[in-house]
Write a structure and sequence with these properties.
By secondary structure, this protein is α+β, with helices and mostly antiparallel strands. It folds into two domains: 301 residues, 2-Layer Sandwich (BirA Bifunctional Protein, domain 2), CATH 3.30.930; 91 residues, 3-Layer(aba) Sandwich (Rossmann fold), CATH 3.40.50.800. Helix content is 41%, strand content 18%. It is built from 17 helices and 16 strands. An eight-stranded mixed sheet has the order 1-5-6-11-10-9-7-8. The chain has a five-stranded mixed sheet with strand order 13-12-14-15-16. Strand 12, helix 14 and strand 13 form a beta-alpha-beta unit. Helix 1 packs antiparallel against helix 6. The longest helix is centred in the N-terminal third of the chain and has 20 residues. The two termini are 53 Å apart.
Length: 454
Amino acid sequence: MAQKPSIPKGTRDFSPVEMVRRNYIFDTIKSVFNLYGYLPIETPAMENLTTLLGKYGDEGDRLLFKILNSGDFLKKIPEDKFQNSRASEIAGYISEKGLRYDLTVPFARYVVQHRNDITFPFKRFQIQPVWRADRPQKGRYREFFQCDVDVIGSRSLLNEVELVQIINDIFVMLNIGTTISLNNRKILYGIAEYIGETEKFKAITIAIDKLDKIGIEKVKEELRLSGISDKGIEQIGDILTFEGTTEQKLVLLEKLLESTETGKKGIEEMTTVFDYLKNISLVSKVELDLTLARGLNYYTGAIIEVKANDVQMGSICGGGRYDDLTGIFGLPDVSGVGVSFGADRIYDVMLEKNLFPKDTSATTHVLFINFGKEEEKYCLPYVAKLRENGINTEMFPDAAKLKKQMNYANNKNIPFVVLAGEQEVNSNTFTLKNMKTGEQKSVDFEELLLMVQQ
């Protein structure tokens, strides 16, 4: 017996109903991106590993899906490497490419490669799948879509403010209540300066980034394993557990980090952003979150994370400022900032909270019942006219039993059915049935058109 087919763990098939809902999310996000003047680009699914490695930290590098070289990929491995070698050492010989981990690093590569064709500041959006060799769980997949929006070539903090506005507008349109958390990597570096552990800044941010998942005591334990002193751990703990308004947190930081140049710069940037936001009407709650770290190494300034209110789910949007990313590819001093919307998590939130509009499950608005060849000839021109008027219309392809055709309409949630048998053909009319109310009415085409457009 043939083995039942399956798909890799952490990936999914999407049914027509799911695709219509997903497209509703994508179309909503695109509409807001366009509203703010961002333009679309696309990059390849795979990139050279030299482009990807070293940009996401050690954990990110481990989660990269690598692609085997074509042909006899074992030929290039030295004989001595087959004996007692780690997989990571051999990987460099057999794999030169990998599936993209996110859209930001490929975007930075794109900017450098096409620098002569770009007008700065360059505002782009990109909606494509990415891949991570992560452990699959609720809200976490190995293949998933990201919806990125970035502006590069400007250091203005107005860009951070605009991103907050974009986030707010998108989630208002999707009817998702959200909290937008902001922090600044310069503040985090200032904390490392404050406790005298700047050389362990990366370890500190990696530990803090896990706070939501493992709790404060486990974070302290990780910091201790990284060699942070007990005093330093307690100082970090006091900052992370401080409860207060954004203004109170900024006051605390100004007092603690007054002797740290980098920290003071981060505080200044956050103060400016929040001052701008005071003059903008937002539905989403916006707050300074000192526990926000964002573990990716390329962030250098403001960092952003968004969570849905009243839903047990990780972040559904996140990003930040990166000043050095294009410099890695040979184009220094080009600052950028952007955020990424997690379409799959947004989908799960909307499904859990029943937020999808009811009509997103129906792609067809009108179905013509098929009674036979003569009736087909009569209906086809009118099917075309409805489509010309922008109404999604189809005709059942076979003259099957009426019950089968009506079940088809019910299963697809088609709101209107048109019946045109011998009597309707002879009188040049139609019988229009509203599938929601069950009401039937004999109409001419002009009346049919008006009724299905309502």
